[in-house]
Amino acid sequence: MIELLICGNRKVFDGALTQLISMTNRTGEAVHCLVMTMDLSRLREDFVAITDEQIAFLDRVIKEKNRDNRVEKLDVTDLYEREFGHCVNEGAYCTPYTLLRLLADLVPGMPDKLLYLDIDIMIAGDIRQLWDIDVTDYEYAAVKEKYGCWLIRPDYFNAGMLLLNMARIRETGLLRKSRELIRNKKMLFADQSAIFRSTTRKLLLPRIYNEQSRFDRKGTVVCHFCKRLMFLPYPHTENYKQWQVEEIHRELNCHAFDEDLAEYLARKAEYDTNMGGDREDD
Asked: What pLDDT, on a 0 to 100 scale, did the predictor assign at position 230?
């Protein structure tokens, strides 16, 4: 069974739905998806946990593909407040939900191997190809960050995909050290930089396991719809996500996931109609 971890609030529903559809459409292996979430409405009124209704819908969708698939909600509000509440990185470049993965070693029953994925990721091949990589001698496996490996350090990685060896991480204290940095040192790329600075040993993988720009490369398994730097017609950034179907067709000319996204649109319409989908989730 593939043990998957994603993190976020109720607004990650579309990302979770698209990602899980693309993943379960391409593997016969059972997927156990842990959704780590929290209520942080003290910081922003829309920072509320993913709902039980959303979790139940995601669970039903992927169970239709494999009855052993399941989605489970982990509300770590209290844990977050204890470890990171009011810390110097709560206002980092992304939301505080990016910090939740750093709590994984504190959650009872977390498996010894765990695949973490950002919510803006789609799966283009059988995820078992990534899952089966041996990380026994490493804390995690990752792929170089497209810009950071040039601007920061050659081995700087993108934390949107992390194949985590939780057994080794508990021994080395990787996440414990990362949390200490988050609490005490302001960093631009908070969670990512904290992991990078705390690492003892990592395995760098080919970019097919976290493709951050071109999604038509042969053999690509993981496609990451992250922010991109563009130089024409003038220097600017683009940040289109997979659930913005019209935009990824028009702006990115990406049609690699048309069947998955057609299913997503149908499922989302079903959710909105039958389960009273909250328009704030869009």
From this structure: 61
Nearest of 61, 60, 35 to residue 50 by alpha carbon = 35
DSSP state of 94: S
| Beta bridge pairs of residue 152 | none
Q: Please write the tens of the pLDDT for every residue from 181-238.
A: 999 988 878 899 999 999 999 999 999 999 998 888 889 999 999 876 665 565 666 8
| Cβ contact 194:182 at 8 Å | yes
Among the four given CATH numbers 3.90.76.10, 3.90.550.10, 2.40.160.40, 3.20.20.70, the one describing domain 2-281 = 3.90.550.10
User: How confident is the model at residue 236, as a pLDDT?
Assistant: 60
Buried b (16+ CB within 10 A) or exposed e, 140-179: bbbbbbbebbeeeeeebbbbbbbbbbbebbeeeebbebbb
Residue pair 159/146 in contact (Cβ under 8 Å)? The answer is no
